[in-house]
């Protein structure tokens, strides 16, 4: 695989690390409506979307799961695999047919432990995604559940 054909989401990684990570990937596909993972389940893999969409959702007691964000082309799906206890913080379901690169979490974590520099690069990449997702989650939950005027000062 050449650098020009790699997912753009990996561009923050050094070229050698991009290729090394992609060496662990396999191409997968899922039909629309497939549950990729459930909140609270074991996070043993992650994906980079090639085509299609995945809705990230959050269980809300007494209500239907709230869709927090919808991910599409070239986005990372899943970060819970990186941090103990390796449990999904959200659920994920395909909202269209999905083609993706799938990565084995344990193998990637092992590579991170064996090579501290590679591990730092992966942690910075995943950490950046976590920061964006937390912001999106906060914004979406405020949209869904905050009373009108909740953004005003006291």
Can you walk me through this structure?
The model has no long low-confidence stretch (mean pLDDT 88). By secondary structure, the chain is an alpha+beta fold. Helices cover 31% and strands 25% of the residues. The protein has a four-stranded antiparallel beta sheet. The chain has a single domain, classed as Sandwich (Jelly Rolls). It is globular, with a radius of gyration of 17 Å.
Mean pLDDT across the residues is 88
Shape: globular
Name the strands of the widest sheet in spatial order. 1-8-3-6
Termini separation (Å)?
55 Å
What is the overall number of helices? Answer: 3
Largest sheet: 4 strands, antiparallel
Helix content class: 25-40%
Percentage of β-strand residues: 25-35%
**Which radius of gyration do the C-alpha atoms yield?**
17 Å
Low-pLDDT ranges: none
Write a concise synopsis of the structure shown.
The protein is an alpha+beta fold. Helices cover 31% and strands 25% of the residues. It has a four-stranded antiparallel sheet.
